[in-house]
Structure formats: structure tokens, C-alpha cells
Amino acid sequence: MTKLLQPDLCVIGAGSGGLSVVAAARAFGVSVVLIEKGKMGGDCLNYGCVPSKSLLAAARRAHEMRNATPFGLQSVDPVIDFAAVRRHVRGVIDSIAPIDSEERFRDLGAQVIRAHARFFGKDTLEAGGFTIKARRIVVATGSSPVIPPIPGIDTVEVLTNETIFDVAELPRHLAILGGGPVGVELAQAFRRLGAQVTVLDRGRILKKEDADLADVTLASFRRDGVDLRPNTTLSRVEKHPGGLRLHLASAGKPSTLEASQSTLEASHLLVAAGRRPNVTDLGLEAAGVEFNEQGIKVDNSLRSVSNSLIYAVGDVAGGAQFTHAANYHAGLVLRPILFRAPAKVRPEIIPRVTYTDPEIAAVGATEEEARMLPGKHRVLRWQIADNDRARAEHETEGFIKVIAGTGGKILGVAIVGRNAGELIHIWALAIAQNLSLKDMTSYVAPYPTVGEIGKRVSVSYFEAMTRKPIVRGLLGGLRLFG
Ligand SMILES: Cc1cc2nc3c(=O)[nH]c(=O)nc-3n(C[C@H](O)[C@H](O)[C@H](O)COP(=O)(O)OP(=O)(O)OC[C@H]3O[C@@H](n4cnc5c(N)ncnc54)[C@H](O)[C@@H]3O)c2cc1C
Ligand SMILES: NC(=O)c1ccc[n+]([C@@H]2O[C@H](COP(=O)([O-])OP(=O)(O)OC[C@H]3O[C@@H](n4cnc5c(N)ncnc54)[C@H](O)[C@@H]3O)[C@@H](O)[C@H]2O)c1
């Protein structure tokens, strides 16, 4: 016989989205049941953001050791102890894990059930021998890696983000299928740690970002010796002594338009070809919750379009797939759930960062998207090479690009350069608060910081105005008064 629980709120999934919902709901004393079938902390802590950024941090140190000469220091080829690198990654995960742990959430007063959850009614679930009937339910089940149906792929061992951080030895030659954020971040990390790396993508690498930004980062990849193969499909894969043989079809150079076939031998294949939302095996049909391949169908308050008792947050909600998006969602759904207050997702305020060196960070419209928007817009650029601090650091690659609409409205901002993810904060605030470029000139920027590029690019918006005859005439007129 199952035991009946009747909390105010039930949350499925203890990843970034689910845990944020539970922590905030408990802060208001709401009764909560949290159900998690896997590891507490979900993808971000265990198989995503945290291990990938930790690996990139080690890779960056290795790169800096190899490239110290501009500072008057002798460059050295670092000895990479991959087992120790793995211990560093594990250590970072372990240091964060208590924040996401079952114990912490029990201490906060949530009932935590470690089991697979399944709906069997519009407000009722079953998990781990419990029946849970809740006033509201939040689905935060995340997403999983897509394994494309490529001939032979089921006959070989492939890595995904769920297994790559556990490889015992540094791969000799890591082939990566997919040049999105997962693929490129791991490509740079493994290359700088000493592996040979090839990235295959059927389209443009880093195609979600404007090409001018991606080009700066990809130039750095080429210098590091990453073999980048855009417009390439993997048509077949098979076992080969010492690893795998990949059969590739490449669209060829646009000038020749000649497709070509080739093979590539690799020791490992990482599949980073996108994500699918975790909507199956959840009993969503029994709850009358509509979904498609993007995720649970929700309105702009993240409420299911077909069951008003149910909300979706994070990767399963079909929008941007980031931890900070999941956290933002969590804050939003609590408004209607706890306070019966309206909530509306604003996708344009969610920044995105690819943590390569140089990083790419953006918020709001891309230049490509801005072309589709009504009204005129201007694109402003400021090169990081013109920044004094960047020169001192020998980190002069990259630029900031601001897309300005009428009256200096900030439609979108993108930065490619070292620490671009840190530099985008002020612009994320600007877009969230509907600030204009005039506002962005109204503060004092500390010198010398790379962040000054933001103020410089904002000032440049007004430069044309200083040359207008009417303005110069007015100045001349004022001079007459002494
Ligand atoms: C390699 C990699 C690197 C990334 N790096 C970044 C980054 O740097 N910055 C960033 O913002 N984002 C990053 N992301 C994306 C980020 O990890 C996700 O957007 C985020 O984890 C989504 O949170 P979530 O709560 O929606 O899902 P998750 O964190 O995946 O949590 C979902 C949880 O639900 C559980 N679950 C699923 N089904 C059930 C069920 N039926 N019953 C019970 N439990 C269930 C799962 O076990 C899981 O623990 C990265 C992703 C990857 C793969
Ligand atoms: N820094 C970050 O915030 C960060 C880091 C990693 C992941 N993420 C999130 O995780 C999500 C998933 O990332 P991802 O990189 O796995 O997916 P993605 O969808 O962004 O990129 C997948 C790439 O794989 C290519 N591809 C797909 N199938 C292919 C095939 N059969 N052959 C060749 N190429 C193929 C696609 O063309 C695409 O470029 C992202 O949307 C992002 O939101 C974020």
C-alpha cells in the first residue's frame, strides 16, 4: 500500500530549476515534496556546468604555462597529470554538493523522495512507494543528450556529457560530434590538456552566435591545433584497432561545392549534438499535460497550456537551456503558485555565455535577429585591443558589439574576449531595466579595467552628434557670452 502525501507543492527534479523552486518555497514555509531519481544537483553540478568549467580552469592554466613569454617569463610545456586533473574536477563538485544535498533540503523542511516520479492523474503522482497529491506541481526534469541515429553508433562506445568527466585517461584523439557550447568548451579543455581534438558539425561551429564573434574564438581554437570541421556529417562509425573509425561526408568549400568523403581515426567519440527534454516515462499523458520535442508546452507564465495545476521550469520548459534560465524560471513560477500574482518570462533578458578562451557572451538580440526587427538600428563596435588593461594583460583579442535601436535603446549586446561572461553582467541589467545608451554613459568606470569598453562603445553612439553643424553652431553661440 502506498502512503499518501498532500503537500502544497510537489517538485519533480532536484537540478538547478527544481532546487531553486524548493528553496524559495521553503523560505515562505510552504509544504514541499521534492522527488529526484538520480543525483541531487542534476546536470549542472554533476555532468554539466561545474565539471566543464573546472576542466576548462585546469586547461587555462596549462595554456598560460605554455604562453608566458610575452610577460618575460619562460614558457614551459606542463606535465599533465590527468588523474590529478580529474581529482580537481571531483573536488570542485564535492565542494558544491552540500548546497544541493538531500540533507540540506531535509533541513530546510522539504520531504525528499529519491525515486522516479510518474503522474497518474492531473494532480497526482507516484514515487518511491508514495502517492503525492499536491495543490501545484512543478516539473523540472531537465534534458538528456541526443544520440543521432548514425549507422554503427550503437555498436561502439560513445561518450556524452554524462560520461566524459569519468574517462580514466586523457583521450589520445577525441572526436566531438557537435560544435555547440558543449562541444566547443570540451574541445578546448581537452586540447589544452594535451589531447588531439577534432570537432565535427553538420553546419557552422558555434552557429547560435553571430559569425563575427564565433570567428574570434575559433581562430584561437585553430592556433591551439583543434581540427575544426564545419559542414561535415558523420555517416557511419565502426570499431577500429585502438579506437574508432569515423566515415565523414563534408559539404566542401563554397567555391567548389564539391562534397567529399573521408575517414578519421579517433580513440574516443563525444556526442554533443544537442539535448532532448526529459518528457518521456513521466506519465504526462495521464496528467493531461501536452508536450512536444521542445518540451512541455507552457504559456508565458510557464504554466502547462493543458493543465493549469502544473508548471515547467528549466530545460524541460522548451526555452533557453541554462542554469541561470532555470533559476530565473523558478523565481517566476513561485509568483502565481504562492502569491497568485502574474508572471511573464522575458527571454530577451537571459544572457548566454560560452566559456571558451576567448569567451563569447551575449544578451538580447543578435545582429542577425536585429535585422528582422521593425525600425532602424545601428551596430556599434569597440575593439578590446584599444583597452589599456587588456594590453597590460596581453589579452587584446575580441570586441564588444552593441545593437542600438531608436533613441539609443539597447536591443542586444555581445562580447567576445577574455572574461566576456563577467563583462556582460552590466548589459544584462541594462536590458532587464530597459536602460538606454545614455544611461550607460552616466556612470564612472574605474581605470584601468576591461569593462571600460562598455562605456567607450556607449559614448561612440553620440559621436556623430558632436560633429553636427547645429551643435557646433550652438557651442559657438554660447562662447559669445564669455
Ligand atoms: C556539458 C554541459 C555544460 C553546461 N554548462 C553550462 C554553463 O556553464 N552554464 C549554464 O548556465 N548552463 C550550462 N549547461 C546547461 C545546464 O546544465 C542546464 O541548463 C541545467 O542543468 C538545467 O537545469 P534543470 O533543473 O532544468 O535540469 P537538471 O539540472 O538536468 O535537473 C533535472 C533533474 O530531474 C531529474 N529527473 C528527471 N526525470 C525525473 C523523474 N521522472 N523523476 C524524478 N526525477 C527526475 C534528473 O535526474 C535531474 O537530476 C551545461 C550543460 C551541459 C550538458
Ligand atoms: N556555457 C553554457 O552556458 C553552456 C555550455 C554547455 C551547454 N549549454 C546548454 O546546453 C545546450 C546543449 O548544448 P549542445 O552543444 O549539446 O547543443 P546545441 O544544440 O547547442 O549544439 C549541437 C550542435 O550539434 C550539431 N549536430 C547535431 N546533430 C549533428 C549530426 N548528426 N552531425 C553533425 N553535427 C550535428 C548541430 O549542428 C549543433 O551545432 C545548449 O543549448 C546550451 O543552452 C550551455
UniProtKB/TrEMBL annotation:
Textual note on the cofactor = Binds 1 FAD per subunit.
Keyword annotations for this protein, in alphabetical order, are: Disulfide bond, FAD, Flavoprotein, NAD, NADP, Nucleotide-binding, Oxidoreductase, Redox-active center
Tell me the ranges covered by the FAD/NAD(P)-binding domain, including all copies.
8-329
List of residues binding NAD(+): G178, G179, G180, P181, V182, G183, V184, E185, G274
Recall the GO molecular function terms of this protein's record: flavin adenine dinucleotide binding; NAD(P)H dehydrogenase (quinone) activity; oxidoreductase activity, acting on a sulfur group of donors, NAD(P) as acceptor
Matching entries from InterPro entries are given as: FAD/NAD-bd_sf, FAD/NAD-binding_dom, FAD/NAD-linked_Rdtase_dimer_sf, Pyr_nuc-diS_OxRdtase, Pyr_nucl-diS_OxRdtase_dimer, Pyr_OxRdtase_I_AS
Q: Pfam families given for it?
A: Pyr_redox_2 (PF07992), Pyr_redox_dim (PF02852)
Supply the PROSITE patterns for this chain.
Answer: PYRIDINE_REDOX_1
Domain of life according to the entry: Bacteria
Q: List the disulfide bonds.
A: C44-C49
Q: Which cofactor does it need?
A: FAD
Q: Which residues bind FAD?
A: K53, T141, G142, S143, D315
The Pyridine nucleotide-disulphide oxidoreductase dimerisation domain sits at 350-453
Family the UniProt entry places it in: Belongs to the class-I pyridine nucleotide-disulfide oxidoreductase family.
User: Which named protein is this?
Assistant: FAD-dependent oxidoreductase
User: Which organism does this record belong to?
Assistant: Tianweitania sediminis
